[in-house]
Specification:
It is built from 16 helices and 19 strands. The protein is an alpha/beta fold. It has 3 domains: 76 residues, Udp-n-acetylmuramoylalanyl-d-glutamate--2,6- Diaminopimelate Ligase, Chain: A, domain 1 (3-Layer(aba) Sandwich), CATH 3.40.1390; 203 residues, UDP-N-acetylmuramoyl-L-alanine:D-glutamate ligase, CATH 3.40.1190.10; 126 residues, Protein-Tyrosine Phosphatase, Chain A, CATH 3.90.190. Helix 6 runs parallel beside helix 9. The strands form 3 sheets. The protein has a 9-stranded mixed sheet with strand order 6-7-5-8-9-10-11-12-13, with helices on both faces. The chain has a 6-stranded mixed sheet with strand order 14-15-19-16-17-18. The longest helix is centred in the first third of the chain and has 16 residues. Helix content is 34%, strand content 22%.
């Protein structure tokens, strides 16, 4: 069946669905395969629940009815359908990637641009080879600007996602020690993430960048279609950080903006939103309002008050770069007492134990009243600190933990997603 015909069915449908638990009446169900599931086996269930059509790649599940479309590879068809849809919409697509801060930056950009435009942005962190097509297919004829987050843990992945989304604007948050196991090294990270730069420059699109980042500046070289922000360089969009205790506050021209984001490391994420908003002619007063109304969710730099304790919950993800940044910021916060709960960082390959040891070494340079390290890797580190408690698992911490933390304490909780350290909150 021709792609154009399938696209006409998509336009007739209520949208794409890949999970029968979330079927909406009139949707187009695409049966994807995974390591532990085969969506083809749910074909009849999708139809019974009200799917308009089903797309499968397993001939044994073909029902010989007009509701079934068979193809060679449902994932590849989903990606091609998304690209075709993007081409029909012919709207600005802003793609962003980076080691840290992608989702927060995406949310800020979306909040700012929504002041003037009808936007569609990646939901949550659905930023992979499935999530990017689904984001594109969620855009409608009313969408004026699309914002697509792209994640990767190997080289060539960003390149492939760019071919699907065909962005004409791009931004990279930073290059850090994330997914080293897949990228191989920090140079591999730079190579992989900068595939976005290569795609945009090849298509003569517009790039946004941090002019204070020497790596970004060098990579972009003499490319002309670029707009940057800086704390000090007057040739660029200038924003000055004026506070981060605990919320980040900054100044643009004579306007002060006080965000709901914790940590100096979020300054550049806010800068990107302001820069892109300015590029698309959003008035500064609206940029200020958008940034000040945005509140982080999903365990990302959330500030929680519990019995007069201030808890910084940053347990959505972690890598050596973001962990160090969080600790450096935490050391500057003024508090009667401070406690830290840190969980293992994953996908670091052969450097994993060394990176955890370096974090522990850094802990000895800052003034913390109590330190709790959770996970196999942190449990295997060596520390001389008397105030450091090490646990192989969260369950071990839970069974041993005695909540003697003073009421006026500020607490940092940070670890990789698989550690689920938001569970610590219930112990406090």
């Amino acid at each position: 069946m021709k792609l154009e015909t399938i696209y006409s069915y998509f336009l007739e449908s209520s949208g794409i669905c890949t999970d029968t638990r979330k079927i909406e009446k009139g949707c187009l169900f695409v049966a994807l395969r995974g390591d532990t599931f085969n969506g083809n086996t749910f074909t009849q269930q999708a139809l019974d629940k009200g799917a308009f059509k089903v797309i499968i790649d397993d001939i044994s599940q073909h029902k010989n009815t007009g509701e079934t479309i068979i193809c060679n590879n449902t994932l590849l068809l989903l990606q091609k359908l998304a690209t075709y849809h993007r081409q029909q919409l012919n709207i600005p697509i802003i793609a962003l990637t980076g080691s840290n801060g992608k989702t927060t930056t995406k949310e800020i950009i979306n909040t700012v641009l929504s002041k003037k435009f009808k936007t569609t942005a990646t939901l949550g962190n659905l930023n992979n080879h499935i999530g990017v097509p689904l984001t594109l297919l969620s855009m409608t004829k009313d969408t004026e600007i699309g914002i697509v987050e792209m994640g990767a843990n190997h080289t060539k992945e960003i390149e492939a996602l760019c071919e699907i989304a065909q962005p004409n604007f791009g931004y990279i948050t930073n290059f850090g020690k994330a997914h080293i196991e897949g990228f191989g090294s920090i140079q591999g990270v730079i190579q992989g993430k900068s595939e976005l730069y290569k795609y945009i420059t090849k298509k003569k699109g517009m790039l946004f960048f941090n002019a204070d980042d020497p790596v970004q500046t060098k990579l972009l070289g003499t490319y002309r279609s670029k707009v940057g922000y800086s704390k000090t360089k007057e040739d660029f969009y200038t924003l000055k950080q004026i506070d981060a205790n605990p919320y980040v506050a900054l100044q643009v021209a004579q306007t002060k903006i006080t965000s709901n984001l914790i940590g100096a490391y979020n300054f550049t994420n806010i800068c990107a939103g302001a820069l892109i908003g300015n590029f698309f002619d959003i008035p500064l007063k609206d940029i200020k309002q958008a940034i000040e109304q945005y509140k982080p969710t999903n365990n990302r730099s959330q500030l929680i008050t519990k019995e007069s304790r201030q808890i910084i919950l940053d347990a959505y993800n972690a890598n050596p770069t973001s962990m160090l940044a969080a600790l450096q910021h935490f050391s500057t916060i003024k508090a009667a007492s401070k406690v830290i709960f840190l969980g293992d960082m994953f996908e670091l390959g052969e450097t994993a134990q060394q990176e955890h040891q370096e974090i522990v070494n850094h802990l000895s340079t800052i003034n913390i009243d109590q330190i709790y390290l959770i996970g196999t890797l942190f449990n295997n580190t060596k520390t001389q600190a008397k105030n450091c408690h090490q646990y192989k698992t969260f369950e071990a911490l839970k069974s041993d933990f005695k909540n003697t933390i003073p009421k006026d304490t500020t607490i940092l909780i940070k670890g990789s997603r698989a550690m689920a350290l938001e569970r610590v909150v219930s112990l406090l």
